[in-house]
Amino acid sequence: MDGQQKPQVDTDIKTNPDINTSPEIKTQQASAEEARRSLDLAKDRLAEKAQQLTLKDYMTKHPYISLGAAFFSGVLLGGSHEARADISRTMMDVIGKEVIRQREKH
User: Fold this and answer.
1) pTM over 0.85
2) Is the pLDDT of residue 44 over 70?
């Protein structure tokens, strides 16, 4: 180092607009800004629809579908509870028979 500092070049696009003066870069920047605007609009529309679509609204618009879903959910949950009880009973029977068989051997 000889004590001299190199001059700093302004590479920031915002402060030095002469950096990107080619037409291709300007076109790319314009299309990128257009894409951002399009995405923002789509995001706003989706957020608005999501706010409008709530479970309560869906249930009032489609009561038969809601009742059917509730019925089948109950059947599935009730059936799985009953299946667990059957499995537990079967396991206890098998363990009990094994214990009895082991006692008979001794």
Assistant:
1) no
2) yes
